[in-house]
Amino acid sequence: MDVSSAVEDINEMVQNRNGYISDQNMTDVDGKQNANIMLRVPSDSLDIILRNLSILAVRVDYMKVNSKDVSEEYVDLSSRLKTKEEVHKRYIDILRNKAGTIEELLSAERRIGVLQEEIESAEGRIRYFDDQVSLSNVKVQIYKKEVLVAKIESRLVPFWSSAESKFIGGWNFILRFTILIVGLWPLLLAVGIVFLYRKRLRLKIIELSKRG
Predict the structure, then answer these.
(1) Does pTM top 0.70 for this prediction?
(2) Is residue 60 within 8 Å of residue 33, measured between CB atoms?
């Protein structure tokens, strides 16, 4: 399975658990595929997602799970938000009823603007906590490791190619040598006849010397 197929399988698995991929980055350099993805999954499905990721992976190199308790900060922020909303409401009543001097009304108006910004900031922070509590972040890195067998095969191919060329070269040499012998047979025959004649002549000379 390649990296892109693994990402598709993970996306389908997460969507089936009402999660989604919030960030995704894939690279393919010289055949080395790599992907970094950020998953957002419901907290009650986190254990199942992690288990399924372990099954999907050929090997899990590293896994780390951590959590942060924000309950105290959440309660404190909710309490301060409630107080600001109450003060904001009182200033609104002052402006609506025009209770006070012009200077007090202007001060109340400025104070309402500041409180409104603080309330919106606190509400945004609470929404962030709610999102973090309901959904967990899962960072996954996927890579395809180069298989050693492929390297071995790449070394074997030149070996067999070289052996084949050596065999063909040796066979061609034998053929050329055979053709050369066939082409030289008259000369070799003449050399043989001369050799035999000289040998017989030498034997006759030896016999004559013995008789003498």
Answers:
(1) no
(2) no
